[in-house]
User: Which sequence fits this backbone?
């Protein structure tokens, strides 16, 4: 049915008014949904005024903690996120102090896991930063390390990268110097240290592949101060082995240190 003339315009206007009523709150004002957070929170405000802002601060803290400790940030970004975490924690603590015992107890049950996560993640971050610094210092001393010292350096580097590390080098290790775990990944590490140059070929990696399968690991890391032959690189392209030579060690130490960290001189023999 066609609709022409003034009657049609009136029908459309009436329909539109009904739509506005449906989309409005009890007072008739149109409602607006937030895009980022379901509860309001103003990071620049000096205090938290009510329960709604309290829950907004909790959401803000959850996201800020994820951003700070699960992402690679520049030094300036890291400082900004750490500041917003400290500010939100301070304001939430002050808000809880103003409540009576019953209200404080109820809201503190919501806040306690976030507060605990902030403390634990900061402590873990500091521990990893210290381990990365130790690995960085040893990187410049690789020419003077023993094979055992090199294995210790590699263990510290993996720890600084967030892995759980179990050292198992020694007699009967079947080519496994370290066992590492991270996010459900189980891997074995073989360390080969040489003060002089040389090339690791595919036979060494074929033997290491058997070790990976025997250990029932997801993958293996072959770490050396030497370089790998082209045949070795082609071999690992189809197998769960990651090659880490001297230059790659430098990259991993820098990754562990994070953006903007100071750099020690690289070993001249890489």
Assistant:
């Amino acid at each position: 049915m066609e609709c022409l003339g003034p009657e049609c315009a009136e029908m459309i206007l009436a329909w539109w008014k009904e739509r506005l009523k449906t989309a409005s709150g009890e007072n008739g004002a149109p409602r607006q949904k937030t895009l980022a957070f379901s509860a309001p929170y103003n990071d620049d405000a000096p205090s938290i005024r009510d329960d709604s802002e309290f829950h907004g601060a909790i959401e803000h803290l959850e996201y800020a903690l994820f951003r700070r400790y699960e992402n690679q940030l520049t030094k300036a970004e890291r400082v900004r996120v750490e500041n917003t975490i400290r500010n939100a924690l301070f304001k939430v603590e002050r808000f809880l102090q103003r409540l009576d015992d019953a209200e404080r107890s109820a809201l503190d049950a919501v806040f306690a896991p976030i507060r605990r996560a902030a403390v634990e993640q900061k402590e873990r971050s500091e521990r990893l930063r210290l381990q990365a610094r130790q690995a960085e210092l040893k990187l410049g001393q690789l020419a003077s390390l023993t094979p055992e010292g090199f294995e210790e350096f590699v263990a510290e580097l993996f720890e600084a990268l967030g892995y759980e590390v179990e050292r198992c080098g020694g007699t009967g290790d079947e080519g496994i110097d370290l066992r590492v775990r991270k996010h459900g990944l189980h891997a074995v590490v073989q360390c080969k240290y040489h003060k002089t140059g040389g090339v690791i070929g595919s036979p060494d990696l074929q033997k290491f592949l058997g070790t990976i399968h025997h250990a029932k690991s997801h993958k293996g890391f072959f770490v050396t101060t030497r370089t790998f032959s082209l045949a070795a690189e082609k071999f690992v392209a189809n197998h769960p082995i990651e090659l880490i030579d001297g230059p790659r060690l430098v990259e991993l130490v820098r990754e562990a240190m994070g953006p903007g960290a100071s750099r020690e001189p690289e070993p001249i023999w890489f």
Remarks:
- The chain has two domains: 37-132, 144-257.
- The chain has a mean pLDDT of 80.
- Residues 101-139 form the longest helix (39 residues).
